[in-house]
């Protein structure tokens, strides 16, 4: 009877030791899964940050391009205005000269 009890007790100890080993393995697997999930999440976050940085760079580039276009348009408008102003002055001077010659012709 003692041998049977001793065998049963030894079996229980062996089973509990095996169960602890299985739990350790399960904990290790769970920890590994958590680490993989964390790494995956960090990788996604880094990708998202890179996309944001790229979008910001593109936006800055677009703003710079728009400013350059606006400056170009402004310069063109100033040039056109100066040409029209010069043309108007010339027309006025010509009209004045025509008026003087007409006045001299009537004398």
Question: What can be said about this structure in brief?
Answer:
This protein has 107 residues and is mainly alpha-helical.
How would you describe this protein?
Residues 38-97 have a biased composition (Basic and acidic residues). It comes from Massilia phyllostachyos. The chain is mostly helical and 107 residues long. Helix content is 98%, strand content 0%. It is built from 1 helix and no strands. The longest helix is centred in the middle third of the chain and has 105 residues, at 2-106. The chain is rod-shaped, with a radius of gyration of 46 Å. The N and C termini lie far apart (157 Å).
Topology:
Elements: H1 2-106
Query: Termini distance?
Result: 157 Å
What does the main sheet amount to?
none
Tally of extended strands?
0
How many individual helices? 1
Please state the CA-atom Rg, rounded to the nearest Å: 46 Å
* Fraction of residues in β-strands: under 5%
Which series of helices and strands comes N to C?
Answer: H
Residue share in helix: over 70%
Mean pLDDT, to the nearest integer, reads: 84
Uncertain ranges: none
Broad shape: rod-shaped
Structural class: mainly alpha
């Amino acid at each position: 009877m003692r041998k049977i009890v001793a065998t049963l007790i030894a079996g229980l100890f062996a089973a509990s030791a095996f169960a602890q080993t299985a739990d350790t393995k399960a904990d290790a697997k769970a920890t590994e899964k958590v680490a993989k999930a964390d790494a995956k999440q960090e990788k996604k976050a880094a990708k998202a940050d890179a996309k944001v940085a790229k979008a910001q760079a593109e936006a800055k580039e677009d703003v710079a391009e728009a400013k350059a276009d606006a400056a170009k348009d402004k310069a063109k408008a100033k040039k056109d205005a100066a040409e029209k102003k010069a043309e108007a002055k010339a027309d006025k001077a010509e009209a004045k000269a025509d008026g003087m010659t007409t006045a001299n012709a009537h004398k």
